Structure formats: structure tokens, C-alpha cells
Amino acid sequence: MQNTKDMLQQWAASAKSRIPAGRGMFAQHISLWKELAANDFLQRKMPLSGDGLPQEFRCDIKDLDTHRVSVCNGFVAGLAGRNLLFPDKKAALGNTPCVCRLKDLSQDESERIQAFFTEKEAEPESGKIRRTVDFAKASREHDTLSFARLNRELTPETLVVYLPAGCRLDKPLQIVNLCLGNEPLFLQPHCLMLLEKGASLSLVHCTDSHPQADILANALTEIHLQAEARLEFIQMQNVGDRCKIFHHIRADLQAEAHLNLHRMTLNGGITQNNTEINLLEPKAHAEVFGLYLQDREQKTDNQVKINHVAPRTYSRELFKGVMDDSAQAYFKGHVFVSPQAQQTEAYQSCRNLLVSPKAQAYAKPYLEIYADDVQCNHGVTVGQLDEDALFYMRCRGISTESARRLLMRAYADEILREIGVEELRLWLTSLVKKRFSGQLQACQDCILSCTGGEC
Amino acid sequence: MKKQEEQDQILKDITQSDYEWGFETEVDTHALEKGLSEDTIRRISKLKEEPEYMLEFRLAAFAQWKKMGEPHWGHFDYAPIDYQDIIYYAAPQTKEDNPLAGVDPELLETFKKLGIELDEKKELPKVAVDAIMDSVSVKTMYSEDLAKQGIIFCSISEAIKNHPDLIKEYLGSVVPSGDNYFTALNSAVFSDGSFVYIPKGVRCPMELSSYFRINAKESGQFERTLIIADEGAYVSYMEGCTAPMRDKNQLHAAVVEIVVLKDAEVKYSTVQNWYPGDKEGRGGIYNFVTKRGICKGSRAKLSWTQVETGSAITWKYPSIILKGDHSTGEFYSVAVTNNHQQADTGTKMIHIGQNTSSTIVSKGVSAGESQNSYRGLVKIMPAAEGARNFSRCDSLLMGNRCGAHTWPDIQCQNRTAVVEHEATTSKISEEKLFYCRQRGLSEEDAVSLIVNGYAKDVLEQLPMEFAAEAQKLLSVSLEGSVG
User: Fold this and answer.
1) Which domain covers residue A9, as residue numbers?
2) Do residues A74 and A47 lie in contact, with contact meaning Cβ atoms separated by under 8 Å?
3) What Cα–Cα distance (Å) separates residue B83 from each residue in A304, B189, B218, B368, B453?
4) What is the pLDDT of residue B193?
5) A345 near B CB under 8 A
6) A113-125 residue pLDDT tens
7) Positive or negative CA dihedral for B216, B219, B224, B225?
8) Helix (H) or strand (E) holding B241
9) Pick from A387, A412, A439: which residue ends a domain?
10) How confident is the model at residue A141 (pLDDT cuts 50, 70, 90)?
11) Are residues A236 and A316 part of one domain?
12) Which of A137, A322, A372 is best to mutate for the B interface (most B CBs within 10 A)?
């Protein structure tokens, strides 16, 4: 594995020169470049095999009945060469839905699925002066492309989720992504997801860790939805305070495909949720929801880029956060409408509640529009709970504390009620309730059954 | 009958699509040769008979400029600027030294053609004008009248000679020389501009105004304006600008600094109408301007209002630092781009003091093949308890080859602050157009009416003298962009 080490050294060296300047109007506060340039980065280990890691995890969410697949430190758990949904079948992209490792597929099939996710454009030159024609292209962020490349080159195993045309699973699929280890790690979980024409899937994606784990992850999930396919993707993050998770989700949508993406950040030292959605054909429809509940010194960064490339496409973003203690939240939403994307509708909204004197919120809601027949709007607010509402409840004998909690729950509920998986929604609602009433430390209720007694 | 004629005239004015301020005046001009070096700066300083401290200020800025690079984060596409191919000082020659008789009739005629009467006897609504052609101030009106109340209104060159204390204290205090590439350039080579000082408790009895005109070929204009409102003072200041039509781009890099002390109020209005270039995008002014004010004392108030219709490139972010407790900042802007114009404009509101509040209203209209961006920063510092911001920025698109963009940045570091930002982008609604057309308005008139209505929130903030001109300008700028 000498090559990997060399490569990491190269990346760490180049990262130093690529950290965005720390001042000015457009500085980036959270960046994987910063982590790669950190002094201790090269001390991090990259696990070389999944041997000895636990293979099966139980889930704490009551009544949540799912097909479960576990990924541990980037390694897929389960029998080699098998379809993990139906272990009696071989891994293949046939008429049955399939969840497997990429390397378990035949050469042809592996190439077939990878063709959907190859980068067609070259990495844009950084620092080049752009012309109007360059601006009007749905070009991708330089950093995003670089880190996707890093992930693809270093990932030990790629998880494949495949649904053939018109297929629908009987229950949601759950991917449990675990980060374990007693020493600092650098992980590259990678997942490819292909839904053929008219297929439909509910997916619950959880990322969890030991409360003490020290993990830096550069995760990549690539999604391709063919015409009329529907995907509900609920991503939850509940990792320890020392974990730094950079999770990039990229989705390409064909005609009339429908994507519902939920990004729930419940706990984590530094979390960057990077979302890129390309609406490639007419009537593609995407909705992105985000909820982040931060306290102590946690930092979250939600970056959403939506490229409207075809006419009559729709997108909606709604992000809400509550920041306590010294937590910081960053939001950068970027709606891009190309000259061809007439009759686009795009809505973007980010609401932040600051509940402690040291909490901070930053937002950059961008609109970049090159077509005239569009309806686009965005709104950002930073503030506190509604004083009038608090007063109303206090008049009716509700204590200030309870009234505040009620209002915060109502605030979070706007995001939670969009979740289509009933059992999960109830569980999350009760979790949020407990969190607001202060009964819940992050570690409690985590789905790891740790044995070390830290919990 | 007369009414009919008036209406015809208005109609003619509105539909006249050419840039009517594009004429050139034949006056003798004294100009330095092209190029920028330490020597150029020494010569500018010498020509202006400046004291030593100004030369040092300029040279220090030039040293900083040499170390900086041109910024490229704006949403622009333009050929590189050759800073050695610009004339940095051009002065229309005055024939005599006597300031009253000395103004060349040709110059008076020029400003008359621009609608500015420099003869104090003839001017009806009392507005004091500082007229600036190329690199020098031609005439400052009513200086004597104003001086009786202790108000200083003169060109900045005079202020450097006559009021060194104020200049030393405030010049560069809000916009330091090294703030950005263009401020450094301006600080090194600025030639003239206006200076205003309103003493304690004085309410300026008339609107003050400066009018900027670029006339000389291949020259750049680098003016510098400094306004100081002492405790409890009030002033309303207006700024207008035009330039002749030329195929070659000309550079305009100005700096405006405003200091508002305790309980004072300053209202700054701009109608920017530099030559925007022709329909194919040839020529036009590159307008790189840094404007910033500080509300230094408690309850100070500063308001920026701008109507941007000209320039090939507009790069302008009038900002306010709200340092005093309970101070207020306002920014109202209409930016119209047509043909190949590119505008990247907005504001920065920095809240430092307690209970400070700011309002941002920005209306963008893009037509033709133009690009129009709003870029703004709202920053609430940790100490700004109870700060309040409301921003609204709307964009209107006309035609499918233009672009409208919004790049806001909100940074909130205090939990008691309330920040709200809203933006919409859409085209002129078919229903509204249909309604107007049905009632007999032509499509052009209907669009003009709708755009004026859309921009009304901002136009209302303009002083009366400006409002009518601005409305006319909006219609003219959009001429030919429908259908």
C-alpha cells in the first residue's frame, strides 16, 4: 500500500496551497482541504481490510422493518459474491433488485453500472478567469470533483444498489454505515445507486460511530435515477464529537424522476453535507430537506447545488437548524438555471434558531439564472423563537421552558413531517423531543451496542 | 393643445433610445502622457500643488497597489485592462486664474447641455453643484453662501490645501488605501472630487450635488469624495455622471467615504449614467467604485440610494459600518442592464453597535444579453445585541439571453439579532402586460410602466430633482428590449 501513502502525502501537500484564504467576503470556513493540510493528517490510518470487523448490527429504531446492509469503515459486510438482499442469489444486475459489492459483479455489469457515473467533463482549472460562456454552463465545483476522485481512487469497496425497471421493494432499504476504531482513521465509503425506469425505493442511510472515535471520512454516494424513478433518501448522521464527516451526494435525474432527500445531522464534530443534484431532463423533480441540531462546539455545513439543465424542472430546498452553546452552522445553497431550462421552479429556504450567546449562523443562498421564464425565490432568516407565541403560551399557564420546547418541536416538525417512512418519523420526532428537553446526551440511543462501557 | 404637445415631447423623450449625453466638448485639455509610475504620481501631486503629506499618502498607496492583483471574483467577462494605456490626469484649460470669470464658456455650455446650470442666478431649485470634468473640479456653486453657516463644500484639492486637519483625520479612515486593488489605485492617482463638512447641529439648507463628466479621450477618472457630518448635522448629497460615446473602454475608479457622527444623518443619492457601450458591446465605461460610510456615533443614520443604468461594467458595493449604538443604515438600489452591460452590485452592512438596524432593497432588471448580479454581505458581530436586518432583492428578467444572479452572504454571530433575507427572480408577468395592453398602452409603454412600478420602492427614496430624471432613464435604458 505504499502508493496510497505516497498519494496521501501528495494530497496533503497540495492541500496546503489550496486552503481558501481565511478572510474576505467569500472565505470557506469548513473545507476538507483544511483537514488534509492539518499536521496530524498523515498520522491517520486507512484500514486495509474488513476482516475482524463485526458483520451484523442491530438497529435501535423500534418497529422499523427494513432490509439491512452494513458497511463498516468502508467495507461491505456480508457474503462475498452474493446479492445481499437475497443471500441465496448471486450478485447480478438482472431482473431482481440487487445490493452487492461492485467487485462481485461480472466485468460487463461492473462497466455497465460505472458508465452512468463517469465524469464527462474535465476538472476545471482553478483560478482561471471565467468568461460569460463558462458562467452559463452547469459547471461543477472544482473541490467537489477533486474529492470525488480521491474517494474513487482510495475506496476499498464500493456498494452497489440496483433496482431494475418498474421494481419496488416491499420494505425500505437501510444502509448502516459504521465508523469504528481506536486510532485516528481516514475513510472513503463509496456507494453507487442506479434506479431504472419507473423503479421506486425508500432508503434509510445511517452513519454512526463510537462516541470517542476519531474519524475523518470523505464519503461519496452517487445516484442515477432513470425516467420516472422515485427515490426517498433519508440520511442520518449521529457520530461522536471528534468525527469529521464530509459526505457528498450527487444525483442525476432523468425525465420525470423524483428525488426526496433528507439530511438529518443529529450529532458530529464537523459535518459537511454536500449535495449536488443535476436535473437533466424535463419535469425532473427534487426536494431537499435538512435539519441540524447542534450544540457544544459542533459545526455543520450544508452545501446544496442544484443544476436545472432541462425545461420544466422543479426543486425545493428547506433547511432548518437549532444552534446551542458554541455551535456554528453554515449553509450554502446554489440554484443554477441554464438558458435551456425555461419554466423552472426553484425554491430555497434556510431558517436558523440561535439559542445561546455564542452560537453562530452563516448563510449564502445563491441564485444564478440564465433563463427568463422562471419562478425562483429564496429566503433566509436568523433569529429567536417568536416572542408573541411565547407570551401567548405563558399567559395560559405554560412555563417558559415548556413553551420554548413546544415551539422548538413545532419548528423541527416542519422538516420531520416530510419523512415518508412512518416508523422512522415517529422515532426521530421522539428523539428530537428528548433532545430539546435536554434528556438526551448524544451517545444515549446510539445504535451501537458498545461493550467498552463508554456509553 | 399644449398638453398634447407636452405629452408628445414626453413620449419622444422616452422612446429616444440613443445615449443622449454622448457628445464631446472641444476644449483645450492639459493632459499627462499615458502610463503610471512613481513619476506620474509626483507630477499629479505637483500640478495640484499639494502639501508633502499628500504625496506621501499617494506613494504609499502606489507601493501597495503594485503588490496587489486585480480581483476576479465578480461575475464579469471583460478584456484585461492595460493600466499603462490610460491617461491619469487630464484637465480642461481655464483661461484665467480668477475663479468667477475663469470658467470657459464652452464648459458652462457643456454642463448646460447636461441639464446643469452652473450660473447661480439662473438655478431655480436651489441645489449647490460641484461640477467635475475629467480630473479637475470646474466650479463649485454657493460655496460662499454655505460658508456662512460653517459648511465647507469645495473640491477636495482645495480642502487638502485649506483644511489639512480634517483631511488628515478622515481621508482613508473609512476606506483605507489598501482596502482593495481599485482603492489603492485611486489613492495613488486621484485628481479631484468633492469635500463636504457639515458642522455640529447644522442642517444643510440645500441639496449638495456633484456632477462627474469624462470628456478627454483615453483618460481615466479617479475622483475621491469625502463627506463628514458632525454631531447632529444633516445633509442630502446627490451624484450624477455621464461620458461621451467612444469605442474604447475607459476606466473610472472612484472612492467615496462618509463619516456620520452622533445624531447626524447623511443621505447619498446616485444616478449613474456613464456611457454603457453600443448595442454590440463596444466601448463603455468600466466602473470600479468603492463607497463606504461609517455611522460612528449613536443614532447616526446613513442612507445610500442608487440608480445604476450606465457603464459597461459596474462593480460597486456601497457599504455601511454601523458602529454607533442605535445607528441606522439603508441601501436602496435599482440596477438596469441592457445589451451587453454587466453589473455586479450590492452592499455590505457591518453591525457592530447595539440595536443597530439596516434595510436593503435591491431591484435588478436585466434585458438584452446583459448580466446583472446582486452581491451583498450582512454581518452581525458578536457585540451587536438586538441588531436587525431586513433585505429584499428582486430580479426581473426580460429576454432569454440575459442573466440575473443573487449572491448574498449572511453572517450572524449574535443570538439576539434578527436577520431576514428574501429574494425572487421572475419575468414580467403576462397578466400585467395583458392588462395594460388591453387598456390601449403599447407594449413598450406597458413595460416601462411595470418597471417603474417595480422600482418604485427605490425611486421614492430619491430627492425630487432626481426622481423624474431617474424614471425617464429607466425607460430609455430598456428601450428596444421588448419583443
Assistant:
1) 1-19+27-43
2) yes
3) 39, 12, 11, 30, 41
4) 83
5) no
6) 888 888 766 555 5
7) positive
8) strand B234-242
9) A387
10) confident
11) yes
12) A372
Same-domain pairing of A330 and A230: yes
The whole-number pLDDT of residue B329 equals 93
Give yes or no for residue A247 having a pLDDT over 80. yes
Query: Given A130, A370, A379, which is nearest B421 (Cβ)?
Result: A379
Residue A210's pLDDT band (boundaries 50, 70, 90)?
Answer: confident
Read off the pLDDT of each residue in B155-179 and give the average, rounded to a whole number. 87
Q: Are residues A2 and A134 part of one domain? A: no
Q: What is the DSSP letter of B221?
A: B
Contact yes or no for B343/B374 (Cβ under 8 A): no
Q: Say which range, A444-453, B188-197, B205-214, B426-435, has the weakest mean pLDDT.
A: A444-453
Same domain, A301 and A211: yes
Instruction: Based on the fold, state whether residues A81 and A92 are members of the same structural domain.
Output: yes
- The residue among A369, A375, A377 with the most chain B CBs within 10 A of its CB, best to mutate, is A369
Query: Is the minimum CB–CB distance between A271 and chain B shorter than 8 Å?
Result: no
Inter-chain touch A381–B413, beta carbons under 8 Å = no
Q: Is A384 in contact with B72 (Cβ distance < 8 A)?
A: no
Q: How confident is the model at residue A52 (pLDDT cuts 50, 70, 90)?
A: low
* Contact criterion met (CB < 8 Å) for B423 and A357: no
Task: State how far the Cα of A78 lies from the Cα of B223, in Å rounded to an integer.
Answer: 73
Which residues does chain A have within 8 Å of residue B376's beta carbon, measured at their own beta carbons? none
For residue A408, being part of any structural domain is answered with no
Q: How many CB atoms sit inside 10 A of residue B122's CB?
A: 8
A-B CB pairs within 8 A amount to 124
> A96: Cβ–Cβ under 8 A, 6 or more apart, which residues?
A83, A85, A86, A89, A164, A167
Tell me, yes or no, whether A71 lies in a domain: yes
What 8-state DSSP symbol labels residue B223?
B
Considering only residues 365 to 384 of chain A, which have any Cβ-Cβ distance to chain B shorter than 8 Å? 365-384
Mean pLDDT for A427-441 is: 74
Closest CA to B81 of B22, B42, B36: B36
| DSSP 8-state secondary structure symbol assigned to residue A24 | S
pLDDT digits (tens, 9 = 90+) for A278-291: 998 999 999 999 99
Interface test with B, best of A139, A367, A387, A404 (most B CBs within 10 A): A367
Chain B residues close to A362, C-beta within 8 Å:
409-412
Q: Does residue A150 lie in a domain region?
A: yes
Does residue A162 fall inside a structural domain?
Answer: yes
Instruction: Tell me, yes or no, whether A130 and A12 share the same domain.
Output: no
Quick one: three-class SS letters along A410-424? HHHHHHHCCCCCHHH
Residue A355 confidence class, pLDDT cut points 50, 70, 90: confident
Looking at the complex, does the CB of residue B73 fall below 8 Å from at least one CB of chain A? yes
Identify all chain A residues contacting B412, using CB atoms and an 8 Å cutoff.
352, 354, 360-362, 382
Q: Which residues of A touch B411 (CB under 8 A)?
A: 360, 362
Instruction: Judge if A5 and A150 occupy the same domain.
Output: no
* Per-residue pLDDT tens over the stretch A308-343: 989 999 999 999 988 888 888 889 888 999 888 888
Domains in chain A, number: 2
Domain end (from A324, A353, A387): A387
Q: What residue of B is the nearest CA neighbor of A386?
A: B418
Position B350 scores a pLDDT of 92
The verdict on a CB contact (< 8 Å) between B425 and A356 is: no
Tell me the pLDDT of chain B averaged across its residues: 81
What percent of chain B is modeled with pLDDT above 90? 17
ipTM of the prediction? 0.79
**Residue of higher predicted confidence among B7 and B306:** B306
- Joined together, the cell numbers standing for residue B223 give 475622483
Contact B410 A26 (CB under 8 A): no
Do A313 and A186 belong to one domain? yes
- Calculate how close chain B gets to A379, using CA atoms only, in Å: 4
Backbone angles phi, psi at A190, to 5 degrees: -135, 135
